[in-house]
Amino acid sequence: MKVLNAAKSRSALRNAALVSVQTLVVMLLGYVLLRLLGWAWPVIWPLTVALLITTLTWPPARFLRRHGWPPALAAATVTVLFLLLAGGIIVGIVVPVAGQSGELADGVIDGINQLREWASGPPLNINDAQVDSAFNTGIEQLQSRVGSIVNATVAGVGTVLNGVVTTVLALFLMFFFLKDGPRFLPWLSRQLPGRLSVDIPTIAERSWKTLGSFVLSQAFVGLLDAVFIGIGLWIVGVPLVLPLAVLTFVAAFVPIVGALFAGFVAVLIALVFEGFWAAVIVLIIILVVQQLEGNIFQPMVQSRGLGLHAAVVLLAVTLGGSVAGIVGSLLAVPVAAVLGVFWTYLREQLSDPAGPEPASDDADPSDPDSPEPVATA
Question: Could you give the 3-state DSSP secondary structure of residue 16?
Answer without folding.
Answer: helix
